[in-house]
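Appendix B, example 12.
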Amino acid sequence: MTANALLDSQLESYELGHEMPLEFSTVRAAVRHNGQRTPFLLIDLELVRSKIRRFRAAMPEVRVHYAMKANPHPEILRVMLEEGVAFEVASAGELEVLLALGVPGPEIHYNNPIKPPGHLERAAREGVAWYAIDSVEELHKVVGAKADARLCLRIETQNLGSDWPLVGKFGVPLAEARELIHEARRIGADLAGVSFHVGSQCRNLDNWRIGIENAKLVFDMMRSHGLAPRLLNIGGGFPVLHTKPIPTIERIGASVRRALADLPGDMRVMAEPGRYLVSDAAWLVSRVIGTADRRGTRWVYLDAGVYHGLMETAEGLEYQIRSERDGAHIPCTVAGPTCDSVDVVARDRILPAGLRTGDTVYIPNAGAYSTVYATSFNGFPPPETVVLQHL
């Protein structure tokens, strides 16, 4: 059986009923109650809290470090702090947000493998201890800024079955890891961890198992060079339900726990969930600003598009789009408000034929990588964030 056929077989057995997104009826009621100008992101913090707890129940051995880049809204970060979640950052800007909230620098992991020197120096001054690297140049850069830095080597691993493979931009191939380990030993660097990323929206259970097995090989290389590895970071990529079948976090957790079973007892394990914790706790609420029939195709234009909360559609992510309008449904092309031809959200989406200017549309599962990507391009404002008040 080929790898793709194996993945297809695996996906057929996944259960979809365990995901519990924010209910459409709750969103509609909140929109009517608030009367908020669109577009806006409506988020339920209690669902964020429940996703944190569900992740921990699935993988109790794994320390949760929230990936700030998914959505750093202050209310979301407050919930993370209340639940005892730790954090990982990719820039000094994200670091500053956490410092302002009172998060101690030594508890924050700086896991962007390539760091601007000024950002790195800022992190070092604040006592950030752990840094990801995946090249000899970055090894020297980090050690030059903080001689006692604890380093985590990001390795390349399989991304088959992920909607956005990350292989190529980051991660040292296993065949090249020994050279970097040797250099770390030569300069006396504390290379003490291994990390990997299975790819965003990963639907393939094998990716985590393979990543962990590869990490064990690298740990052996480290020990053979006299280093003392003590951290495994299994990264992110934990999927949420859009339009494709996904494995539940419980299925992923069972696979991860089996792979971790023979690690030494003093090995600390962490993960970097971002999308999983916040995505399905929010809906993007938008309005139709115009419609047109062009060469036999119905076009529907929204006040939110690629540049205003739906950037991931440009990379192929398919959001569901809901409406309160009844009647016949037809294939439609959905576009954003700007005069850029790239600003097309979906094609051949089955929507009510009667959609017209002023109608509200609802886009579920939009809590991650939506508002953080949003701009004011063409003078259209980015979506605001509204916290759901339970009625």
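Residues 111 and 132 are 5 Å apart (CA to CA). Residues 47-279 form a domain with the TIM Barrel fold (CATH 3.20.20.10).
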